[in-house]
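[Automated response] Your request has been received and processed.

Submitted sequence:
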Amino acid sequence: MKILNQLSNQNQKTNSYSNNLHKIEKQQKKNNERLSSGKKINKAGDDAAGIAIAQKMEDLINGIGKGINNTYDMKNALKTADGSLNNINDSLNRVRELSLQASSGILNDDDKKLIQEEVSQTLAGINDMANNTQFNGQNLLDGSFTNKSVAMNPDGSGTTISIGEVSSDALGLGNFSVLQDKIDLNAIDKAIDSVSTARVQIGAQINRFDYAIGSNSNAALNTISSKSKIEDADIAKETINRQTNKALSQYGIFAEKNRQQTQYNMLNILF
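Generated structure:
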């Protein structure tokens, strides 16, 4: 009777050992998955809420990245426009210098015609820059670059950009001549002011884009860090857990073999 009770206890232990071994093997499999992938969450069953949150963060990170790229693109377009405006400003200053030179009473008509020739060529150069300054196939300074949207943020929101026309006609110098009795220096000054104002506005917008890029980059880094904490595995911890579970598994197998030998011996006594 005593031996039968012992056999019954052994059977109960068998079930316990089997359950424990199953749990250990399951945990070992999870350790191996995490170590091989580097991820704490490899399927929805690992952490359903965590994987949903991580996916939302991934969408946010992608949106921020696209917003940064869009901002960089428009910033580069504005820098291209500003470079041409700087050259136009230099050209206008040259026209002013020539106009002052032509205002000298010591010059004869032939001298003034030579000056007018350079003035005309300089204004033609301004028109060339106004009509041919492009970024990604779009003209920037001919008046067609208006209300261009910039999706700076992950939700698609942002701002719009417009750049005015800077041709000689738009600047009020379409018919400018130094051959007149009274040279209109005021018209040149207004044109220079218009270009300077456009450059100030572009510079302010470039600064705004720089701040937005910095802010969004910081947001992206923080979101990536948060996402990593949710889904990335702690490699050191998982390595220790794998070694621990391996030892427990080996011990469980050894204990099960001993139990089977004990049961075998008891059955031999009975029969």
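Summary generated for your ticket: Residues 2-38+237-270 form one domain. DSSP finds five helices and four strands in the chain.
If you did not submit this request, please reply to this message.
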